[in-house]
Structures are given as C-alpha cells and as structure tokens.
Amino acid sequence: MNLDNKEKHNKWLNQVVEPILEPNLPIIDPHHHLWPAPWGRNKIPVESHYLLEDLWNDTQSGHNIVKTVFVECGQGYYLEGPESFKPVGETDFVLGIANEARQDTSKAQISGIVGHADLMLGKSVKEVLEAHREKGEGLFKGIRHTAGWDQNEEVRNSHSEPIRHIYLDDNFQKGIEQLENLDMSFDAWHYHHQIKELTLLAKTFPNLIIIHNHFGGPLGIGPYEGNRDKIFNQWKEDIFELSGCKNVVSKLGGMAMPINGWDWHKRTKPATSNELVLAQKEYYLHVIDSFGAERCLFESNFPVDKQSISYPVLWNAFKKLTSDFSEKDKNQLFYETAARVYKI
Q1: Which domain holds residue 202?
Q2: Cβ atoms 285, 323 nearer than 8 A
Q3: Is the pTM for the entire model greater than 0.90?
Q4: Coil/strand/helix, residue 178
Q5: 3-class SS string, 287-331
Q6: pLDDT of residue 37
Q7: Which of 16, 123, 224, 342 is least surrounded by CB atoms within 10 angstroms?
Q8: Contacts of 119 by beta carbon, 8 Å cutoff, 6+ apart
Q9: pLDDT in the model for residue 5
C-alpha cells in the first residue's frame, strides 16, 4: 500500500492551523469510521485509511475528546458464512480496536458501536441483531442501514444499495420492528429529498430512537448543483416537520463531504472554521432551533469530512457556532445528548 497520498493529504490539511477554542470542554464524538484498507467493501481512497493511530492523532489534536462512537462503513465483514451474518464481522473488528484503545485510557475511548444489518430481511433480522449484541460485549448500540438513493447517476447511492422508498417498504419496516423490540437505536442516512419518508417511518415507530445523520444529506452535485437556495428552503420545512417526532435526534456535522457541493476538497487549502461557519451556520442553527439542544449532537464524520477540513478546525467551527449558547446547551450538544442516546 502506497501511503504517499495520505501523507500529502495530511500536509494539505496542516496548512490551516488554528488556536484550540475551549480546550477543556468534554466532548463525545458520536460518529466516526475505521477503515483498515485503502480499498475495502465500501471503496475509499488511500488517504482515508483510518485506524486507532489515526483516530487518536485527531482526537488528541487539542480538543477534549473523551469518548467516541463508531458507525458502520462496510469494513471487517466476515468472508465466510451466511450472507446476512457477514456484517457482524464489522462489530468484531471494531471491538478489537476498542479493546486495544483500553490499553491507554488517557486517550479517547471507543464507547459505542453502530453496526449494519440488512433490515430488508424483515423479522429474520432479529438473529443478526442478537449476534451483533453478543459480539459487541456491551458496546453494540444499534444499526445503520443506509438509505441514500437518487435516480441520477452522478449521485452515488449508499453502499448498502438501498431500493427506492426503502423507509416505506414492508420488509424494511418489519426489520425496524425487530430493532425497536430489542431496544436498539437506528442511525438514518439518506439524501435531502428522503427526509419526509423518514418522518413517516418515525411516526410509525414512535418508540424507536432514530439518530438523523448529516442533516439529511443536502446534495450539491450533479443535477442539484446551483440549486442550493431552493433545496435549503424545502429542507428547512422538512427538518421542522421531522423535529415534531420526539423519538428523533439530529447529528450536526457531515456536511463537508464532496456530495454536499462546497468543493473545499478541490482547493489548494482546506476550509477554515470561519468558512464553515459562514457557509453552513443557517443549517446548524435551524436544526438546533427545531430540535432543541437536548436532541442534537455534534459529530465529526471522520475521516470522510477529512477530505475538506481538519479535525481541530472542524471542532473549532462547532464551538464558534455555539459561542453565545448557555453552558447547559453546550454540554448537551457536545456530550450529554450523545451519552444519553447511545447509553454510554
């Protein structure tokens, strides 16, 4: 494996260095990935190769990150056995890294695992969920079955290859029912035009804790390029409607990805915290106003967002966004909501 691209990318990120704001504020990062190879089940570039050393390099870069939650990304699947149980291998893989991290408790600990199970299996997914729980040794919290679907070929659909209108599918909902019965959470990732369908799902399963990922994925590429204002206005309405479902909480982050169309990853220098705040402040504040701080949690989405911005700069942006918030609201946004939702 040639790591030249990774080293070049880190050098590119290091062009922007900022003083760390509020370095003592305790933080749970509730959304990061781990990638053991440059090209895995979910194909990624070499600069995204990300294991414990990489995670700690980021979490130790100035902010007080004390705990993290791993979210599925199609890595470490079992190569043998029934297809439906292969994703349990990812939980096994992450547990090994979490155990490795326990050898140095002065650094951020992986305190939760969100895996994948094919909810299209319907009722039979129960056995897979139970296998995840057993393998996770107390760290397994729930699953994410990515739902991002778009009819345009320029927008890559989610790695789980979802069908159109998956949230409304009978088999999928039977799988969701098993998740709810086992008191596990559901991380929801999709695109902006699918938010209304998640709202219908949330209303159908009011006892299921749903964690809305990445603002619902406002797209800015392909046919959506140049339509940001129109998309934003509809997105605002859809987010407000979703916030009426009290079983839904919202992750704040994951909008520095190339699909969002800001194109920071194409520049000679990465984004600064001021640039992120200026470009995306209205998104963050609308979600917080709609859901309340007690139902919102900041996330890094690393190393995916690392394509556009460094870890310390990203968390500086979050702190600038909340500079005039009360201490209570800050603690909820940076720590307490994540601790409650993921039971860590």
Answers
A1: 4-15+24-341
A2: no
A3: yes
A4: helix
A5: HHHHHCHHHEEECCCECCHHHCCCHHHHHHHHHHHCCCCCHHHHH
A6: 63
A7: 123
A8: 125, 143, 145, 171, 172, 175, 176, 179
A9: 84
Q: Based on the structure, what is the number of domains in the chain?
A: 1
Helix (H) or strand (E) holding 140: strand 140-144
Structural tokens at position 107 = 């650094």
Instruction: Report the pLDDT value the prediction gives residue 39, as an integer from 0 to 100.
Output: 45
Helix (H) or strand (E) holding 27: strand 26-32
pLDDT of the residue at 341: 98
DSSP 131: H
What are 29's strand-pairing partners? Answer: 68
Q: What is the pLDDT of residue 2?
A: 43
pLDDT (0 to 100) of residue 49: 83
Element (H, E) at 69: strand 64-71
* Per-residue confidence (pLDDT) for residue 1, from 0 to 100: 32
Task: Say if residue 218 is preceded by a cis peptide, omega within 30 of 0.
Answer: no
Q: What's the distance, CA 215 to chain centroid?
A: 10
Cα 186 to Cα 312: distance, rounded to the nearest angstrom? 28
Give the number of other Cβ atoms within 10 Å of residue 282's Cβ. Answer: 11
φ, ψ at 260 (rounded to 5°): -80, -15
Q: What is the pLDDT of residue 6?
A: 85
Tokens at residue 241, please? Answer: 């409607």
Whether residue 214 contacts residue 253, with contact meaning beta carbons closer than 8 Å, is answered with yes
Q: How far apart are CA 170 and CA 120, in angstroms?
A: 8
β-sheet with 248-252: strand ranges across: 26-32, 64-71, 109-115, 140-144, 185-188, 210-212, 248-252, 296-298
**CB within 8 A of 327, min separation 6: which ones?**
none
CATH code of residue 160 = 3.20.20.140
What's the N-to-C CA distance of the chain in angstroms?
Answer: 36
Instruction: Return the amino acid letter for 315.
Output: W
Do strands 109-115 and 185-188 pair parallel, antiparallel, or not at all (unpaired)? unpaired
Q: How far apart are CA 125 and CA 108, in angstroms?
A: 32
Per-residue confidence (pLDDT) for residue 238, from 0 to 100: 98
Profile the chain (344 residues) by mean pLDDT over runs of 10 residues.
73 97 98 77 62 97 98 95 98 98 98 98 98 98 97 91 96 98 98 98 98 98 96 98 98 96 96 98 98 98 96 98 98 98 97
